[in-house]
Every structure is written in structure tokens, then in C-alpha cells.
Amino acid sequence: MELAEALAKDVVVLDGGLSTALEEAGHDLSDELWSARLLLTEPDAVRAAHLAYFRAGAQVAITASYQASFAGFARHGLGARETARLLRSSVGLARSTASEVDGQRWVAASVGPYGAVLADGSEYRGRYGLTTRELVRFHRPRIEALAEAEPDVLAVETVPDVDEARAVLEVVRGSGVPAWLSYSVRGDRTCAGQPLEEAFAVVSDVDEVVAVGVNCCAPQDVAGAVAVAREVTGLPVVVYPNSGETWDARERAWSGGAAGFAAGEWAGAGARLVGGCCRTGPAAIAALAAELTAGR
């Protein structure tokens, strides 16, 4: 069953933060490549993290390609051919893991924003000073490599501003590969400050987009985003917020406590892909999956 067909029937459970599961397993992700480094050095660790989420009840695995890029791997001495292979392998790892569990599973190839590759928190600000053409040039080869591996969907995620969304959608448009578009937000605006009405409207002429929504945000920002996304697009909504803890970029540490997820309320309001992002591990996804199952 294709993912779009499944979304028309029921809520689909996403996984949690891949980096969270890897760090809980003892892996050091302080490198600028973050979890993408393990595609090169410890692919079995990535597979184990996917498996932990599947066993917790996730139906969709988001790949370890969020911070993977040709420029980033080039700084580590890898050529374009090897980088493309690693990008494709991120999909293959998730796909092979899905075959180890019962039930329908899907693979979402993560397409992180340009700011993630800078490894300086720019994905929470946007406005990189690049033209649309430069952003298209950055995103096209990685999206093409991921598409070659035939994921079920491209997870265009943590996009901080409308300018970058338009650039990515220029690559996605006409590709024939389903995609969801998910913004990083603060309140009712993108991280770059644009209204969500404007942000979601950019998908109107892109047939490949099967869902829109938000991720890597505070849980309290989700309900409002669901309402706007439904009103503007009529598409299924994807939501996977952070735990509620706050990242201190200067101290490079999380602070505060986790907030509760109102997964049942989000689903009732129109969210059809529901999961977690930073600081949500397999245990959190197990609780979320149980709540959604009980709600059915």
C-alpha cells in the first residue's frame, strides 16, 4: 500500500529522533555530519536504531540522511560517487530493517535544510543569504540520489523559511516521488518569521506533495499549525515535535523538562502522520503509538 493511500484511511505513526536513539545506544554524534557519519562508519548502528523504533510501534522510518550532503562528505575526503552511494544506503538500511518486522512499514528519505549542513543552528533561523538558484543547486543532487533508492516518500523536513521550501519544491516538482514538506516553526510562524498561511501555500502546484506540517518545534506549536495546514492545503498533516526540552546552542546541551504530547488531539484535528523529533526516543514513540491505537 502506498503511503498516500494509507493516510486516507488512518493515522500513521512516525519514528522519533534518530539521533536520540543513537545517543541512547552510546554513539557519539558530535561530528558535523551528526548521525550521517554512521552511514560511513557504523551502518549497523543506524539499522539498530530503526529497528528500535519499529518495535516501539513506528510505521515510518526517517533515514539518516538529514545532515548528509555532497559538500559535507567532501570535507571528510569523500567524492561525489561515494557520497551518492551513502545517501542511497540510508534508504537501503531503513528498507532492510523494515523487512525484519511484521506489518506495513514505509521509508521516508530525510531531506534536511541547507542550514543543517552548516552545523551551526542555521536551520532554526533560515535566511542564509543564498539565492533560490544556489539552494536548488545544493538540494538537487542529494534529492536525486535519494530518489534513485526509491523511498516511499521524501521527508523534506525542518525547513526554516519559505524561500528554501520553494527551492526544494522546484526540485521535487515533476520528479514523481511523493514528498512531505515540514517546517520548523515558532508559534504561528516559520523560524524565519513568515506566517504559516504563506508557508503552506507554496505546495499548491506541486502534485508530489502528499502532506504538509511541522517538526522540530515545541509541542504547544502543533495544534495551531495543524489547523492552518488543513485550511490552506486540505492535505493530510504531518507533525513530529521535539520533546519540549530546549536546546542551548552555546552550552550544546538540552535544558528544561519534556512536555506531554497531545497525539490523540492532533490526530482528531487532522494530523495523519504523527511522531517525534529531538529528544523523543523509542519509549516516547511506544507511548504515542499506544495512545493513537487506543484512540482508534
Short description:
The protein has 296 residues and is of the alpha/beta class. The protein has helices spanning 3-7, 18-24, 37-41, 43-56, 70-74, 80-98, 114-118, 132-148, 162-172, 196-201, 222-233, 263-269, 282-295, and strands at 12-13, 60-62, 106-111, 153-159, 179-183, 185-186, 189-190, 209-215, 237-240, 246-248, 253-255, 271-274.
What report would you give on this structure?
The protein contains 13 helices and 12 strands. The protein has one domain: Homocysteine-binding-like domain (TIM Barrel, Alpha-Beta Barrel). Helix 8 packs across helix 9. With 296 residues, the chain is of the alpha/beta class.
Question: Helices and strands in order, then pairings?
Answer:
Elements: H1 3-7, E1 12-13, H2 18-24, H3 37-41, H4 43-56, E2 60-62, H5 70-74, H6 80-98, E3 106-111, H7 114-118, H8 132-148, E4 153-159, H9 162-172, E5 179-183, E6 185-186, E7 189-190, H10 196-201, E8 209-215, H11 222-233, E9 237-240, E10 246-248, E11 253-255, H12 263-269, E12 271-274, H13 282-295
Parallel strand pairs: 1-12, 2-3, 3-4, 4-5, 5-8, 8-9, 9-12
Antiparallel strand pairs: 6-7, 10-11
